[in-house]
Automatic annotation (TrEMBL):
Taxonomy, superkingdom: Bacteria
Matches recorded under Pfam families: PTS_EIIA_2
PTS EIIA type-2 domain location: 15-157
Organism (species): Breznakia pachnodae
Protein name per the record: Mannitol/fructose-specific phosphotransferase system IIA component (Ntr-type)
Biological classification of the source: Bacteria, Bacillati, Bacillota, Erysipelotrichia, Erysipelotrichales
Xref: SUPFAM superfamilies: Phoshotransferase/anion transport protein (SSF55804)
């Protein structure tokens, strides 16, 4: 079967997405709880120091990481791990993220060994933010595999 991965000059977001760090239809009631939830899970999984969470909150205090279309992409002030990490959560209902509703959140860490990822990851995330149908499909995903297929391939294989 031929792969239909969206790639940009050989780049695929798939290498940065860990299915163990995708959470669907979570009952979380505030943007602060979303950040806490994702940071704790990522820090536990990768054994990252909890300064990571503090740095994400500090970055958020300097300006909202909500970009519209129900999407927020919180991230730390600096990298806390050698590889680029994308962790996702969909919420059972939107939360108010500063001045906008958010239902899909991607916690981002650009790896210390992965500075070349910055342009490709941000390009991918910009495409996602600007694709309301894809966001809607991600929010409606009934399984981690379905979410991952929509995220990585842009459709169901």
């Amino acid at each position: 079967m031929q792969s239909h991965k969206k790639t940009r000059i050989g780049y695929s977001i798939e290498e940065h997405v860990n299915k163990d760090l995708i959470y669907l239809n979570q009952d979380i009631n505030s943007w602060e709880e979303v950040i806490e939830f994702l940071c704790v899970n990522v820090a536990d999984y990768y054994h990252i120091e909890m300064d990571f969470k503090d740095s994400v909150f500090e970055r958020e205090s300097r300006g909202s990481t909500c970009y519209g279309n129900l999407v927020a992409i919180p991230h730390a002030m600096k990298s806390f791990y050698k590889k680029t990490i994308l962790s996702f959560v969909t919420l059972s209902k939107p939360v108010q993220w500063k001045d906008r509703p958010v239902q899909l959140v991607c916690l981002l860490n650009i790896g210390t060994d992965s500075e070349n990822d910055i342009e490709s990851v941000f390009s991918f995330l910009t495409e996602l933010i600007n694709d309301p149908e894809r966001v809607k499909s991600l929010l409606a995903s009934g399984s981690i595999n379905e979410f991952s297929d929509w995220l990585i391939y842009g459709n169901l294989r």
